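Try it yourself: sequence plus adenosine-5'-triphosphate, in.
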Amino acid sequence: MEFRAVRGVEDLIPPESEKFEKVVEIFKDVVRKAGFREVILPIFEEAGLFSRSVGETTDIVQKEMYVFEDKGGRVIALRPEGTASAVRAYIEHGVYAKEPFTKWFYVGPMFRFERPQAGRKRQFFQAGCEVFGLSSPGADAEVIRVAADIFDSLKVDCSLEINSIGCEKCRPEYRKALIEFLEQKKEELCEDCLKRFERNPLRVLDCKVESCQKVVAEAPRITDFLCDECRKHFEKLKEYLKTLDVKFTENPLLVRGLDYYTRTVFEFKSERLGAQSTVLAGGRYDKLISQLGGPETPALGFALGVDRAMLLIPEKEEERNGVFVVTRGEKAYREGLKLIKFLREKGIRAEMDHRQGSFKAQMKAADRVKAKYVVIIGEAEVEEGFFSFKELETGKQERIESLEELFARL
Ligand code: ATP
Ligand code: MG
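Structure, out:
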């Protein structure tokens, strides 16, 4: 074969595509109930948007972004995540001036040049939510509750970890302490961390290299450095999570791989996913909107990894549904064509096998497409004007006199 899909970029053919659809449908259903409305955002943007928001020293920007020059000489990036675009659109359309607070959701492909493996692809899908304009911890709790609702609806067990990474007031203090600590452990850090720890020491906390994780386990904890406001915010958040029946554990080392977060960060994980255990991740980003040129506006959000969620939902036995019309002879075939048109107009799935082979071959096709019923139109049926109606599961066959009766029977 001459052409194959690009490495790390996968086709989703049925039934995988149906699993995808199930995850997305449940996501949309849950978030719409909480008042989120859909935004449809471009899949490429000026590369600078991402380096500015996700952060110059993050893995995403340093190693993972697909960047190219377009024919007009613009430096473009395929989006590695959704929040930067959502914020850009929010500012560009002046939404802040029209609504006291805004709740958006999006679904779509993201692109990161990573090493492909189970649960890690170069094109993957995220379904995300963003709330703009709310600063209170109740908003954090509600957003996390919505995320938990998605897993409840998917019937997937996940555990939630939360942390607070402070604000521009308290984080510098922590940064200093962390740099001092890491300075002592230099020999044990990986090359990347050695390069970045002075510019962005929090990145070290997020490093996946084992030796770095060992170092990090002993590192000072951000939660010991929070200012009064951040601490209060975090305490309130935990209270409200309890009010909303959300189970969580605190992970003082959780920092997330993107620079724009402030205060609350959280991740939903599943052990069943092995190394790629995080299915949904998010947090508060109160400085991002002003950083991208908008007015000072608090905000928060999360993104669900659709591909990873698909790995968690159970394989389901395909359910039989709809009607397969089996015919013999040209006259019956035409009756069959009319019948599938009629049934579809009535909202019933209806198919036939246009190859017009033997009854047996057509029955086999009916079984393969998992039809629930077969309507047989043979010579006798055409002559006398009735339908033979068979339920595939039971094999029970009956005679049906009219279209109305058939419709009623379905
Ligand atoms: P990880 O630590 O697994 O690399 P991340 O911190 O880079 O994740 P985010 O940028 O927060 O992830 O994205 C949110 C979610 O999107 C992740 O929790 C994950 O479910 C999904 N995701 C991220 N990168 C990929 C990828 N390359 N392939 C599939 N899903 C991904
Ligand atoms: Mg990553």
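One thing you can check immediately is this: Residues 16-170+226-312 form a domain with the BirA Bifunctional Protein; domain 2 fold (CATH 3.30.930.10).
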